[in-house]
Amino acid sequence: MVGTEQGLVVSCNRKAKTAAEKIVCTYDGHHGPIYALQRNPFFPKNFLTVGDWTARIWSEDIKESSIMWTKIIMTFARWCCPQVSDKALYSLRVQDNGQLVACGSQNGEATLLEICSGLSTLQKNEKSLAAA
């Protein structure tokens, strides 16, 4: 995938045999250059773009428009992927209100992470919108 200066995201197939098969599809949603594009490491069909002062989340399954976007000015964004341990994580437990996450690693270390209220507080219609 690549973002263009015209605000398009172009999805390509590197293994295509013909020129017509090389461009799989395009996503049109920004009104200027796309400055960042990154796939979600946990849900690879979803990706994030930044351009025209907004961040947008897309799904490969929905070609018509992005599934979420910001209303605020954005110049940088990325998926939240903090490294918790050098060892494999074997357990994860989220507090009932979603503000704390405990992680247990392969070597017995426990790490407690605090989640910001913007991510831990359920927004109006969030569950139904995400499911849709």
TrEMBL record:
Coiled-coil residues: none
Keyword Glycosyltransferase: no
Subcellular location: Cytoplasm, Cytoskeleton, Cilium axoneme
Alphabetical UniProt keywords: Cell projection, Cilium, Cytoplasm, Cytoskeleton, Dynein, Microtubule, Motor protein, Repeat, WD repeat
Family to which the UniProt record says this protein belongs: Belongs to the dynein intermediate chain family.
Protein name: Dynein intermediate chain 2, axonemal
Species name: Xenoophorus captivus
